[in-house]
Amino acid sequence: MRPFDYVEPTALAEATRTLHEGGEAVRVLAGGTDLLGELKDGLVACERVVSLARLPGLAAIEPEGQGLRVGAMVTLAGLVEAPQLSGPYALLAQVAQGVATPEVRNQGTLGGNLCQRPRCLHYRSPAVACLKKGGSGCPARESPFQAYLSVMGEAGCVATHPSDLALPLLALGAEAWLAGPQGERRLPLDAFFSGTDGDPRRETALGAGELLTAVWLPPAPAGWRGLHRKERDRTAGDFAVAGVAVGCAVEGGTIRHARVALGGLAPAPARSSAAEAVLDGRAPSRDLAERAAQAALAAAKPLPHNAYKVRLARVLLARALEALWG
Questions:
Q1: 91 and 206 together in one domain
Q2: Kind of pairing between the strands at 67-71 and 175-180
Q3: Is there a contact between 151 and 300 (Cβ–Cβ < 8 Å)?
Q4: What is the CATH classification number for the domain harbouring 78?
Q5: Based on the domain organization, do 190 and 88 belong to the same domain?
Q6: Which of the listed residues 130, 144, 204, 234 has the most CB atoms within 10 Å of its CB?
């Protein structure tokens, strides 16, 4: 690993100023479970690492307005144990319980999970040039190692976003709270992932010098509850080949406030408006679950070696919906 300066700012303004002034030569350290691996493998190089460990308020979970503010430095283990994550919010704690291993959950953070880099083998190899590392092409398209790669929504790069926590947060309608040299801003979580301006080197809408400080969970509709499912090669400690988070309320036998979020299938986790449109206003049934799953994957364009993921995701989503209705 190349040497770098390590700083622990104690004020948010100091941290964002350091990031903005340093540009590409500065990296952010939250839990470190992803960044340190990138540095050791030579995937990134930097002159300075800015730790968020001493910034006040980033590790707190507290009421905010009618909802709940969850700091970006809350660990995954902290999410699992948080008494505030009850009722519909318990979905987030349940998903955190299934992320990686106990060691990673004790160290990894909410913000780090949302901002981690892709697990594509081609990106993770220092010997391979790719779009995310400033290369001119995507070698994954011609590779047989495509099991974890995108089947939909790609534009150049076919790596998928590995965050599990993004899915329950999307289903809960969460907002991302950012802070930077120009002040603070808030945006829907789906815009946080999709607002990259088509730049394959970015996975989030974070601008120069900006930090993710928290996510905000709005109050859930009455009677709303959610459920998460994922498929992975190994039963524990592995990233999702495909993941879904679903939620709704059922009033008088009719589905209301349907939310469907998909992960492991595209460069960004996202809600499926097509599936939600199929569900809202209709009575739960197996046929409806299958139609929603078909709608969610209708735009899929798999690679030569990962077409199986389309059927896998359809079955996973349909079964999740049926389990949700129970």
A1: yes
A2: unpaired
A3: yes
A4: 3.30.465.10
A5: yes
A6: 130
Would you call 62 exposed, middle or buried from its count of C-beta atoms within 10 A (0-12, 13-18, 19+)? exposed
- Judgement on whether residues 88 and 187 belong to the same structural domain of the protein: yes
Task: Count up the domains in the chain and report the number.
Answer: 2
- What kind and span of H or E run contains 1? none
Q: Is pTM, for the whole model, over 0.90?
A: yes
Q: Are residues 171 and 248 in the same domain?
A: no
pLDDT in single tens digits along all 326 residues of the chain:
889 999 999 999 999 999 999 999 999 999 999 999 999 999 998 999 999 999 999 999 999 999 999 999 999 999 999 999 999 999 999 999 999 999 999 999 999 999 999 999 999 999 999 999 989 999 999 999 998 999 997 668 999 999 999 999 999 999 999 999 999 999 999 999 998 988 999 999 999 999 999 999 999 999 999 999 999 988 777 899 999 999 999 999 999 999 999 999 999 999 999 999 999 999 999 999 999 999 999 999 999 999 999 999 999 999 999 999 98
The per-residue DSSP string of 18-71 comes to: HHHHHGGGEEEESS-TTHHHHHHHTS---SEEEE-TTSTTTT-EEEETTEEEEE
SS3 74: coil
178 and 281 inside one domain:
no
Whether residues 69 and 198 fall in one domain = yes
